Amino acid sequence: MKKSFAGLMAAGMLFVSVPFTASASGGEKHPEKVVEYVALGDSIAAGMTPYGEIGKSYPDFIKNYFEKGNYTLLDYDNFGVPGYTSLQLKTALQMNVRTIKEVKEATHITINIGANDLFRKLLSDPSRASEGIAEARDNLQASLQQIDRLNPGAHVYVMGYYNPFSYYSEEAQAFLVPLNDALNTVIETAARENGDTYVPTGPAIDPHFEKYMPNPEDNHLNVKGYKVIAKAFWKAIKEDRK
After folding, report:
1. N or C: which end of the chain has fewer CB within 10 A?
2. Secondary structure element (H or E) that encloses residue 77, with its range
3. Which of UniProt's keywords are assigned here (predicted)?
4. Which residues are paired to 199 by β-bridges?
5. Under 8 Å between Cβ of 109 and 103
6. CA distance 242 to 240
């Protein structure tokens, strides 16, 4: 089923509300592998399904990787919030006492943010979509710098988005996909300029979007898709240890 660009306006906000937290430990004790993991982001981090429910998220699966990898997982906090923008994340890192505390203590941090900045501009005035990308760039850079101030030793991994417009018509995608690519470019640039790790997800998700994004009316992933994202992050985490 192909969507017209007009369908975008009716679809609502991308990756659009409650943070989830959990603590866990497991596996053999390896003091050199003690982990405190914090996830930050929008509804993709929260685990929003293609049918409007919250299920297992990619951070949940990363947590499982730590446990099965014989790490000592002391703490796991998922601050993914549906609808979150880059400004809201920046504000949380500056003002939310609990977020600041957990980021200060984290050994590993994953982030996905910026899609809602783009989508809000698309919904209000598509001609100003590039402004949403610029906002995401500036706020993400500020957030990464703030994380460095709070915890310069943390391993930080920043996600690039898959194509959320795969069901749209070719005409609509000709306008929308370059915007998503531009968003990923500024995300990657901000991560690399800050010495953090960029984790692309499009190469794994996009060729099989119908498998991982099964609802043509919604751009969220199913559990299989979140497992694929977690695997991409885990590959980056393992390479960091080499």
Report:
1. C
2. strand 72-80
3. Signal
4. 159
5. yes
6. 6
- Read off the amino acid at residue 130: S
> Helix 97-105 to helix 129-150 angle, to the nearest 10 degrees?
60
C-alpha 242/C-alpha 223 separation (Å) is: 29
For the record, the structure tokens of 242 come out as 């080499």
Of 22-26, 102-106, 130-134, the poorest mean pLDDT is in: 22-26
Give 92-107 pLDDT, tens digit per residue. Answer: 999 999 999 999 999 9
CB 28 within 8 A of CB 70: yes
pLDDT (0 to 100) of residue 103: 98
Of 147, 160, 152, nearest to 236 (Cα)? 160
Euclidean distance between CA atoms 241 and 148, whole angstroms:
19
For residue 147, give the amino acid letter.
Answer: I
Token pair belonging to 181: 């690519």
